[in-house]
Amino acid sequence: MPPVTTRSTPERLSRPQQVAEAIKSWVMANGWGPGARLPSEADLIARFGMAKGTIREAIRILEAQGLVKSRTGPGGGVFVHQVSDARATALLGNYFYFQQLTIDDLYQIRAALEPELAASLAGKLTEGELAALKEVMSAYVRPAEDAEEERAQHIASLRFHALLAEFSDNPLLRFLIRFTATMLSDITVSRRLYAQPNHELWSSGLAYQSRLLEALRAGEGETARRVMAEHMANAQRLMRLQESVLTQRFLPEGRVL
Amino acid sequence: MPPVTTRSTPERLSRPQQVAEAIKSWVMANGWGPGARLPSEADLIARFGMAKGTIREAIRILEAQGLVKSRTGPGGGVFVHQVSDARATALLGNYFYFQQLTIDDLYQIRAALEPELAASLAGKLTEGELAALKEVMSAYVRPAEDAEEERAQHIASLRFHALLAEFSDNPLLRFLIRFTATMLSDITVSRRLYAQPNHELWSSGLAYQSRLLEALRAGEGETARRVMAEHMANAQRLMRLQESVLTQRFLPEGRVL
DNA sequence: CCCAATTTGTTCGTATGTATC
DNA sequence: AGATACATACGAACAAATTGG
Known about the structure:
Two copies of one chain form a homodimer. Chain A has helices at residues 15-30, 41-48, 52-64, 85-95, 103-121, 127-137, 147-166, 171-190, 199-218, 221-240; strands spanning 68-71, 77-80.
């Protein structure tokens, strides 16, 4: 195990932070993956020559970053853990808590990424995957009757995009589509958007997604790209009428589409 | 201050985690912004009725997320803090530590976002901003003579994109351009790409960026979009020849473009 | 320059909770 | 049920850093 180097860099790190960094680079150096068990608390105390509290704080830091998880009892200990989607989403969401992120900002990103996703998936989806997408769509084939139902349908339609992203083999693209969809769905939950049902958003969205599925099945990448681009432009126009600024709030970690 | 609700949800949270969440929603409820001071350690111990270690671990969790910073001494304490770019980048970088993110994955995102950025900035930059971009370019007007210099130039050219992104008023777009550029620059540092100077990447990149600046100054959005798209496609083609998979490593927090 | 007050940072000893055998 | 191996939590004391007199 590499020693804790007391670096004299711009910002002096507290001891727990030093220990956390040391453990991180130790894991990296040894190539340990998810499931690998770190030395026990007692071991770490002995190895680092520090008190229990200090070591525990270090572990808490790693845990907050989603890199480790600890279990009590025999066979327990601290284990390397793959950062979960929910954790990564929540952590990045924190970053935007203090920045004014508008619906337009989110749609500018979606308008750029979603068509690319559609194009890259054309002809690559199995019948089962296409069926799963249709299944999600079934939640909003019927027009919403009240605001509450409309809200639920909007979230379901966002889930359509999140599911579509799952089929991409680009982890960054997957994450970003999910992240933007999660942020948008968070708005509809926190603010009571949709004072009255928005039939136009519903019917046009459904039509676009149907045409999209056909293009995907037929392997027509450029058609899929164009349909999705229109879908985004249309949704952006309709959403813009509703509200403009996101509510300031921390994303609860549970909510991922 | 709201009480710590012992939620019986799927995953039971440890006490420090509960406290951290309680403080978070407390900050949110009171609308406290960066600079606001949380109650002192002693206060928190009294309010939560918990031991010092427990409270400290909670604060460490928030600190790891970049949400607070603490200072010692009189006038010190724990302060609400805006999550920094570097912290957000490092935290999201952790997420991709265990996922195989390829250069192609990064370029698929860049190819979608950078042209959109260019288009949205056309005609909106001041002469000073255009000059700053030219200043960055000056670091690589001269062909690199060895691998080391080539590496430095490549990073400088990534900084060109990061700086361009700073001029966008879309915080998410800013972040994503910076993030992808940082990830790419991290490769050139960790792996010794560029066994020999790559004159083609150098000269073509410089030419594209020059044409881009002209389009931006002239306010020709669609031209800027097209030039950037070609720039990305070209760079992706040339990079693909070099290496395909990112090295597994945690992003050091300092390195942000 | 030193001293005192304030606040976080660290240590140690002990006790409790929890899961496994 | 009981013993074991672990993390979790508590409390009191001490150390270090910062500010102001």
